[in-house]
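Hi support team,

I'm filing this because I wasn't sure whether my run with iron/sulfur cluster finished correctly. The job status page said complete, but I'd like someone to confirm that the output block is well-formed before I use it downstream. Pasting the exact inputs I used:
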Amino acid sequence: MTTVTKTEDSPAPTGSEAFLSVRDLRVQFSTEDGIVKAVDGLSFDLERGKTLGIVGESGSGKSVTNLTVLGLHNKKSTTVDGEIILDGQELVTATERELEKVRGNKAAMIFQDPLTAMSPYYTVGRQIMEPFMKHTGASKKDARIRAIDMLEKVGIPQPKQRVDDYPHQFSGGMRQRAMIAMALVCDPDLLIADEPTTALDVTVQAQILDLLKDLQQEFGSAIVFITHDLGVISKMADDLLVMYAGRAVERGSVSEVLRTPQHPYTWGLLSSMPRLGGDINEALTPIPGAPPSLLNPPTGCRFHPRCGFPDQVSGGRCTTERPLLADGRAAACHLTSEQRQTIFIDRIKPRLG
Ligand code: SF4
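And here is everything the job wrote out:
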């Protein structure tokens, strides 16, 4: 049983039955220019069979977090602190051998670009068979049967023939399906999908999202779904974590966060997105400025240089004091909940329609 310690910077969410539990995670890289504080005190929980969406701009720490969960970060240049507990197993202090067992067997990842995850030199079938043989001890014959079965499950036509194709003989959508087959071949309990549909056209994207949902029902996996696309998240996730500059700034169920967002950054994300059914000539409202450098991130609230509301917080706290993310449905912001509600109703909601 893991003891969860609340720290001043990162209160732990409630829920001790989580299948994946991340506590006060801090990830830093050494670079020639200094230390990059890529993830700074992140905590979240995920239950079996549920999907957690993580959204944020590039550099928000969402992908780094998930590479760290699977131990795929560069061990030489990266420092990781905090706790990552997967099904009772602590992963931050796990050896490479233990992590290898976890990867593929208990947890697997689907990347944005299958060509970076698949070798061009081996057939698709062999790449599905190998993790299966490695983790289950299955024979080559049984692994081939399993690979064909998986290709069929993910909707590859003529799987008995296509199992011997190389990745370049597959279309982009088929490669993505094959990568999902690779990820699911050992029936992992946790699937991390990092922008899995970003490179695909809208029709194929919808098919892959449906496929992931169907497979989740069949395999009962927990999914961490990373994206910058709130439209995709609304279809896929149960809960949502909004990240900005290495920190979680808002959390709640997807419907809560999308219907009544509470953090100025989430307001900015939603206001910069076209509305479904909205006027195509409608002006979008981009978030001013750019995400900060994490070599030297802003003090206090990291969003303060881009936020329109620090003057409504007394004592200049936005620039000096880190706002904390409370348990459950919450936003890390110094505005009072009454202030946020008034701003949302008067200024943000009319924009979102
Ligand atoms: Fe804006 Fe201050 Fe809230 Fe940060 S804490 S989001 S700067 S109002």
